[in-house]
Amino acid sequence: MKNLSSKRKSINWLKIFSNTFFVYLYAPIAVLIIYSFNDNRIAQVWTAFSTKWYLKAFNNEDIQRAIINSLKVAGVATIVATLFATMAALVLSSKRFRGHGISNAIISLPLLVPEIATAVATLSFFAAIEFPLGLTSIIIAHIVFCIPFAFMPIRARLSGMDQTLQEAGRDLYANEWQVFWHVTFPLLKPGILAGAILSFIISIDDFIISLMVAGAGATTLPLYIYSMIRLGVSPEINAVSTVLFCISVTAIIAYWLVSKQNEEKVHVH
Amino acid sequence: MGLGPAILTIFAFMVIPIFILGVFSFMPADPYGGVDKGFSYEAWVQLFFERDLDDSLIFDPVYLQIIFRSIVLAVLATITTLAVGFPVAWYIVQQPAKKRELLLFLVTIPFWTNLLIRAYAWILILGKNGMIEKPLYGLGIIDESLELMYGNLAIGLGLVYSYIPLMILPIYASLEKLDFGLIEAAHDLYAKRYSVIRKIVIPLCLPGIIAGCILVFVLSLGDFISPSILGGGKKMMLSNLIQFQFSSARNWPFGGALTMLLLIMVGIGSFFYIRVLGKREEIK
Where would a tag sit more exposed on chain A, N or C end, judged by fewer CB atoms within 10 A? Predict the structure, then answer.
């Protein structure tokens, strides 16, 4: 592969183009973060370094409530979705059966349906059964679209797993539950953790579905940020956005570390 | 039994709701939100016609224009992401393993961060007195706002920025599997760089290109955030029109009809996506 760099002159253009691309990808985020530390009230005029917008944001009771709501929704949705996804992945990876394909298709459906369609369909459904809108309705909607995200890494982990260990367990007269608890589950744990992290990221960032199915008083952090953006640019938005951005990046780094560990362990056996 | 909870949850809270929404599109609107009892195809008529005072139908392209704009913007976003994404994926795949991993990670991070925040960050750059206009004012090049925000350009830029990782990743995945021996062989046979790319690289990673195009197109078509933040709600796309029907306009049946239209378009896209993936499996 490295032999290709013998064409040095043209490769350089490619390098410049790609580096420009990465600047384009990160410049807006960098501007956002830098200006969150700006002392000036006018978001785009730099005066001095300050952390006052963070303090202001954290002392804002509405923001506190929004963060707590977001964590509640993401927490419950992650736990339920990961549990359901693990159960489904164990069945779908064991053996083929009638309805195998359709089950896979139903689980990946939330990935295919555009978010706006999911949002208004869920709203119509809750209206039709007269289910009150609030945190519970948001949590239900989040569980639905978190399931495929939790499912993917768990399924991948299971398909890379060495089945002989389970067979060895059965040969040693372990019952199905013992095989699961002492062999499958410990091996599966990194996959489950990776699935849970993905669910959490997807849930904490969700905007449009939450917007449609949230009742009064059930504001999550992205909903609050949206209402602030509608009022115009302000350094407080920069500060809150930076916090949300850091939560996502921390989670994605955790996911990356877990899935790296995932690959290595599978290969050792 | 382990399959039950996941399948039932998605069936009850996604498949049935879409079905209900389809039924709603054939019912009369309740002016206070929701639908009235009865049957009506008024919502579907409204897609194309306006009712005049004497109840006669006049062809009205206003909604078709919004749908058309959504499709055009989605196509342009797809073309741009491909034109930018392909060279970047080609560059990444040629790096040493460690650097490749880092660059891929850098491409994925924005994908997993909030779209709302990423769109907002563009306001700081494109907006009045933003990072682009301020230096131009300072240098005396411009003396009034360039009005970069709140138009098709800003929306298109937002779409490209939001979904370009989804173009790069599948193209990278198919480039990674490419047998580089073939390229070396072509070079040994004195093939020009350009013809190597056109005759070997592009045909072999076509599944990745098609997958990336369909993903970007489908997501751009249904995008809500770029038009509502960067388009300022003035230039609507399909999603904004749908959301508007379920909020201020209180015309749920019409919103339902629009959603069904979106789902049909996305359904066609997904169908091709699955066929492309199926073909790729066969090749393996």
Answer: C
Please count the residue pairs, one from chain A and one from chain B, whose beta carbons lie less than 8 angstroms apart: 231
* Surface-to-core class of residue B83, CB atoms within 10 Å of its CB (0-12 exposed, 13-18 middle, 19+ buried): exposed
In a domain, A45, yes or no: no
C-beta atoms of A212 and B243 within 8 A: yes
pLDDT in tens, chain A (269 residues): 444 544 445 557 888 899 999 999 998 899 888 888 887 777 667 777 788 888 888 888 888 899 999 999 999 999 999 999 998 888 887 777 777 778 888 888 888 888 899 999 999 999 888 888 888 999 999 999 999 999 988 888 887 777 777 778 888 887 878 888 888 888 888 889 888 998 999 999 899 999 999 877 788 999 999 988 888 778 888 888 998 888 888 988 888 888 777 666 555 44
Cβ of A18 within 8 Å of Cβ of B92? The answer is: yes
Task: Please tell me the total count of domains within chain A.
Answer: 2
pTM here? 0.84
The domains of chain B are located at 61-283
* CB contact (8 A) between residue B14 and residue A112: no
Give me A85's structure tokens: 């996804």
| Neighbour-count burial for A90-103, b at 16+ CB within 10 Å, e otherwise | bbbeeeeeeeeeeb
Q: Which residues of A touch B227 (CB under 8 A)?
A: none
> What pLDDT, in 10s, does the model give residues A206-264?
999 999 998 777 889 999 999 888 887 788 888 889 988 888 889 888 888 887 776 66
